[in-house]
Amino acid sequence: MIVASSKLGLDEVPISDEALAYLQTLPFPGNVRELMNTVEQAIDSMQMDGAATIELGHVRDATHQAPCAPAESASLKGAVDAFTKQMVEAALKRHRHKQIPSAAELGISDRYLRDLITKFEISKE
């Protein structure tokens, strides 16, 4: 926790046994960046809750992708659009609507992210 918390300008951040056990079950095969991003998102979730310890719920918030809602149309394009919108909204929420880190997490350019925000009429609500 020292590396992730120092990157965010914090002292050591305590983590509950349940949250640590859950993190250890996740598939991060040699992917330290993905693990670090998950921990940083859990810290963000913890801070938004006003908590002092990373709990299981914070880690689940950082790793959970809600299932894709059924598309309004039965077409592949409709399903892809629905899933894309859901992914963009989730990334923006995790990064408090900061577009550059959201785009980086999604693996797209910030310009393309702005185009998607416009296309799907995503607001900061």
Topology:
Layout: H1 2-7, H2 17-25, H3 32-49, H4 56-63, H5 76-94, H6 99-106, H7 110-119
Helix pairs in contact: 2-4, 3-4, 5-6, 6-7
Write structural notes for this entry:
With 125 residues, the chain is an all-alpha fold. It has 2 domains: 2-63, Helicase, Ruva Protein, domain 3, CATH 1.10.8; 76-119. The protein has 7 helices and no strands. It has helices spanning 2-7, 17-25, 32-49, 56-63, 76-94, 99-106, 110-119. Helix 2 packs parallel to helix 4 (56-63) and helix 3 (32-49) packs across helix 4. The chain is globular, with a radius of gyration of 16 Å. The mean pLDDT is 82.
What is the string of helix and strand elements? HHHHHHH
Rg of Cα set: 16 Å
Poorly predicted residue ranges: none
> How widely separated are the two ends?
31 Å
Whole-number count of domains: 2
What share of residues are in beta strands? under 5%
Main structural class: mainly alpha
- Number of helical regions: 7
Mean of pLDDT: 82
* Count of distinct strands: 0
- Please estimate the helix content: 55-70%
For the largest beta-sheet, the strand count, sense and barrel status come to:
none
Class of the largest domain in CATH? Mainly Alpha
Give the CATH architecture of the largest domain.
Answer: Orthogonal Bundle
Might you state the CATH topology name of the largest domain? Helicase, Ruva Protein, domain 3
Q: In one word, what is the shape?
A: globular
